[in-house]
Automatic annotation (TrEMBL):
It comes from Candidatus Viridilinea mediisalina. It holds the Pfam family BPD_transp_1. This is Phosphate ABC transporter permease. InterPro entries: MetI-like, MetI-like_sf, Phosphate_transprt_permease. Keywords: Membrane, Transmembrane, Transmembrane helix, Transport. Residues 69-271 form the ABC transmembrane type-1 domain. Belongs to the binding-protein-dependent transport system permease family. The keyword Transmembrane applies. It comes from the Bacteria.
Length: 284
């Protein structure tokens, strides 16, 4: 009887701990949204979103953050596509050709380590390569740095989705005489909703990262005409504007943070939609 009571008490404690964790997460998100909305709403306008910055924009002049917004989209899109080209073949390989092997477990361990590594480390690494090659900060360098940041996120997310595919489905596919390559194609089609959700997660991570692009993408008030020119980004716009002593410029920084948060939340909801609604007909 005591053991049964102890188990009920233990279960109740863990339920309340989970509720407390959920409450902390909700309160934290609400506090962030309230802070940036209350401080940046007054400075938010269509001109700010649709116009390029003027010469004195970061000191209180006219213009907007259009170039930084487009620059962030360029960086995040390029990084996501590059990470996709790396992550998908790796995950399909370790779940078909290397399934259950030590190599697959080693790859997962490396991906987990890279996932936990601060993004500024990747930025410093790419910066070292740029200095060694005699190159300068550019859109291409920022894209590569962000791709290194989100490759483990996309790969591990996709890997967990692939591992949810029933093992019997893979065995049945192989029993029909298919090759490992054909099995990989079947797994890719079966896990497409989860892959799309992982893509949205990786994209929003790349969109909001400022540490990796700080040393690699540079900063400019104009749009780059090639991959080898520096580019502006929203996280750095927020960083530079908050560092100024002018309240008007700081309000613009909060408005830019509000725009960035809205974009990130939008892509997060799209990922949730693809995972839970588009994938409702997937065999489980």
């Amino acid at each position: 009887m005591r053991r049964k009571q102890w188990r009920k008490l233990e279960e109740g404690c863990f339920i309340w701990l989970m509720r407390l964790a959920l409450l902390i997460a909700v309160v934290g998100l609400g506090s962030i949204l309230f802070t940036i909305t209350s401080r940046g709403w007054a400075a938010l306008s269509w001109e700010m979103v649709s116009q390029p910055p003027s010469a004195g924009f970061y000191l209180g002049g006219g213009g907007g953050i259009l170039h930084a917004l487009l620059g962030s989209l360029y960086l995040a899109t390029g990084a996501t596509l590059l990470a996709l080209l790396i992550a998908v073949p790796v995950v399909l390989y370790i779940n078909t050709y290397g399934r259950g092997s030590k190599t697959a477990e080693m790859v997962r361990l490396v991906l987990n380590i890279l996932w936990g590594m601060p993004s500024i480390v990747f930025g410093v690494f790419i910066l070292g390569l740029l200095l060694a090659l005699g190159l300068r900060t550019s859109l291409l360098a920022g894209t590569i740095a962000l791709a290194l940041v989100i490759v483990p996120i996309l790969a591990r997310t996709f890997d967990e989705v692939v591992r949810l595919v029933p093992h019997e489905l893979s065995e049945t596919t192989l029993a029909l005489g298919t090759t490992r390559l054909e099995l990989s194609i079947m797994l890719l089609r079966q896990t497409m909703p989860g892959l799309l959700a992982g893509l949205f997660l990786a994209f929003e991570r790349a969109l909001g990262d400022g540490a990796a692009v700080l040393f690699t993408a540079g900063f400019t008030s104009s749009m780059p005409s090639s991959l080898f020119q520096p580019v502006a980004s929203l996280p750095l716009v927020i960083f530079f504007q908050l560092a100024t002593p002018f309240p008007e410029v700081q309000a613009r920084a909060y408005a830019a943070a509000l725009i960035l948060t809205a974009i990130v939340l939008t892509f997060g909801m799209l990922g949730y939609f693809f995972l839970h609604h588009v994938g409702k007909h997937v065999i489980r």
